[in-house]
Amino acid sequence: MSDWTKKSPLEWEDYVYKEVRVIASEKKEYKGWLLTTDPVSANIVLVNFLEDGSLSVTGVMGHAVRTVDVVSDGDPRVREKLVHLFTSGHCEAYSHADVERRKGSLRKWLEKNHIPVTEQEDSRGTLCVAGVLTIEPPYGPENCSSSNEIILCRIQDLIRGHVAASGGVPFSSGQTD
Description:
Layout (H helix, E strand, L loop, with lengths): L2 H4 L2 H4 L6 E6 L4 E9 L6 E6 L5 E6 L4 E8 L3 H8 L12 H17 L4 E3 L7 E3 L3 E3 L8 E2 L3 H17 L12
Antiparallel strand pairs: 1-2, 1-5, 2-3, 3-4, 6-7, 7-8, 8-9
């Protein structure tokens, strides 16, 4: 077992968003920006930005890693590119007030449609529908989770209807009733 696999996830965090050199079994060497390390397998994901503007993503299996050395701490621009590498282009940031307004509006909409909805007590604003479906902030159809596919589809359709009823603006204030 290598030193790398003996490290804890907190120790691996010291390498994230830094340029590293990885020596793997059979003396293979990899170099790139460490994006993440899998906490179970110790697998490493390296990213390299190519000259033509594209990028290369390489996975190194945790059991094969012999050593990892930091080459460069990087700069804030590289870190920002890495952070947003796999987020969708339409990712939006919501203020706390926006999230609370969306939650209230959606809850009111579901209750208007005779759907039993509660807020989970020990959560960060998670809505629970009929005890079988949860809706996480920011409360869009893609934030629903349930093992019951029929209920999941119906609630997602209701949320899409809520967006349509508010003039295409998700959870706009005022005209959600």
